[in-house]
Amino acid sequence: MFSKESKKTIEKTVSERNVIGKNTKITGDIISEGDFRIDGTLDGNIQTNGRIIIGQAGLIKGKAICANADIEGRFSGDLNVSNTLTVKSTANITGEVVIGKLSVEPGAAFNATCSMKGAAVKELKKNEKKNLEKTAS
């Protein structure tokens, strides 16, 4: 029914899911293409093209780069989320955060320097448009 070509395409689009369990501590760097759920402790850096989920008992101390993130636990360090960061009410985030979009539930502790890439780009384009209008007048 499926040719070998289409079967390979289907396998490539399926994203892997990785889990660091509740009583697990990892020291070092992680690079992955798939999603990552952390219920234990990561003392190091993590980079993925997928989603990072930090469970209520989870902790990351280091640098994280991902497309999306859902944080219920603790994060300390540099966080770079190209799309949406969702901060749950039980979350505690400290450090530097660069995001595309931000969603924060009431009760979350968000003690970080935060910059929004999407908002910054829109503001820059808005200022450029104003400058062009002034020079054209």
Describe, in plain words, how this protein is organized in 3D.
With 137 residues, the chain is of the alpha/beta class. It is built from two helices and twelve strands. Strands 1, 2, 3, 4, 5, 6, 7, 8, 9, 10, 11 and 12 form a twelve-stranded parallel beta sheet that branches. It is globular, with a radius of gyration of 19 Å. Residues 6-14 have low confidence and may be disordered.
Briefly characterize the structure.
This protein has 137 residues and is an alpha/beta fold.
Main β sheet profile: 12 strands, parallel
Radius of gyration: 19 Å
| Helical percentage | 10-25%
Structural class: alpha/beta
Strand fraction band? over 45%
User: How far do the termini sit from each other?
Assistant: 65 Å
Number of helices: 2
- The stretches of 5 or more residues where confidence is low (pLDDT under 50) are 6-14
Shape: globular
What is the arithmetic mean of pLDDT? Answer: 83
Report the count of strand segments.
12
Please trace the helix and strand order, writing H or E for each element.
Answer: HEEEEEEEEEEEEH
